[in-house]
């Protein structure tokens, strides 16, 4: 069997794509799984140029989310700009949480007190500094009325952070 994302031949495993139909997912290789759950190697993900056009909506959704995580690369932004998804699939890609709860950039559920890491440099409005990629934010709080926001301390300042810019430790 081959990986739905990078087309590598070999063993694959089921990877659930949250926020859509129950039991929706893709078959991915160990390399893709390891990178999705950790640090992305942009060179590996150039394969999204073809997999983003797959007929299976779960593959399209995962490709869209990965391109968003790779947005610091010009080629990934260009691919994301080219990608067209029907309305239902776009809503699924934008809604990473089936239950409406807080989830990180990988779709992992977040809870109050969790530790997260920033996946991109974030300018902090009103504080005059930039929270750097890789910064650990310990003991987060959830913003109850908005599942896209969490709160945490960075450089001694309590800030609101978009969940799409963090990954759970």
Query: Got a strand count?
Result: 10
Distance linking N and C termini: 31 Å
Q: Count the DSSP helices.
A: 5
For the report, how would you describe the main beta sheet?
Answer: 3 strands, antiparallel
Strand order of the largest sheet: 6-3-10
Gross morphology is globular
Number of domains: 2
Order of helices and strands: EEHHHHHEEEEEEEE
Proportion of residues in helical segments: 10-25%
State the secondary-structure class: alpha+beta
Task: Tell me the radius of gyration.
Answer: 16 Å
Tell me, rounded to a whole number, the average pLDDT: 89
> How much of the sequence is in beta strands?
15-25%
Oligomeric state of the chains? single chain
Q: Enumerate the spans where pLDDT stays under 50 for 5 or more consecutive residues.
A: none
Protein name: Alkylphosphonate utilization protein
Organism: Pseudophaeobacter arcticus
Domain Protein YjdM C-terminal: 103-169
Question: Secondary-structure map with pairings?
Answer:
Layout (H helix, E strand, L loop, with lengths): L12 E4 L8 E4 L1 H7 L11 H4 L5 H13 L4 H9 L4 H8 L21 E3 L3 E3 L4 E3 L4 E2 L3 E2 L6 E6 L2 E6 L3 E3 L1
Antiparallel strand pairs: 1-2, 3-6, 3-10, 4-5, 7-8, 8-9
Mind explaining what this structure looks like?
It contains five helices and ten strands. It folds into two domains: 13-94, no CATH class; 116-168, SH3 type barrels, CATH 2.30.30.40. The protein is of the alpha+beta class and 169 residues long.
Short description:
By secondary structure, this protein is α+β, with helices and mostly antiparallel strands. The protein is 24% helix and 21% strand. It folds into 2 domains: 13-94, no CATH class; 116-168, SH3 Domains (SH3 type barrels, Roll), CATH 2.30.30.40.
């Amino acid at each position: 069997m081959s990986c739905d994302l990078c087309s590598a031949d070999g063993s694959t495993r089921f990877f659930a794509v949250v926020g859509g139909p129950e039991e929706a997912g893709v078959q991915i290789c160990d390399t893709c799984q390891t990178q999705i759950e950790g640090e992305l190697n942009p060179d590996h993900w150039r394969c999204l140029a073809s997999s983003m056009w797959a007929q299976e909506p779960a593959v399209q959704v995962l490709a869209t989310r990965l391109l968003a995580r790779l947005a610091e690369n010009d080629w990934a932004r260009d691919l994301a700009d080219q990608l067209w998804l029907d309305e239902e699939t776009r809503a699924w890609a934008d809604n990473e949480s089936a239950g409406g709860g807080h989830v990180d950039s990988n779709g992992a559920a977040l809870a109050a007190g969790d530790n997260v890491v920033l996946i991109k440099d974030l300018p902090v409005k009103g504080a005059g500094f930039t929270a750097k990629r890789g910064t650990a934010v310990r003991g987060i709080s959830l913003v109850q009325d908005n599942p896209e926001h969490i709160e945490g301390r960075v450089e001694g300042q309590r800030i609101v952070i978009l969940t799409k810019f963090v990954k759970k430790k």
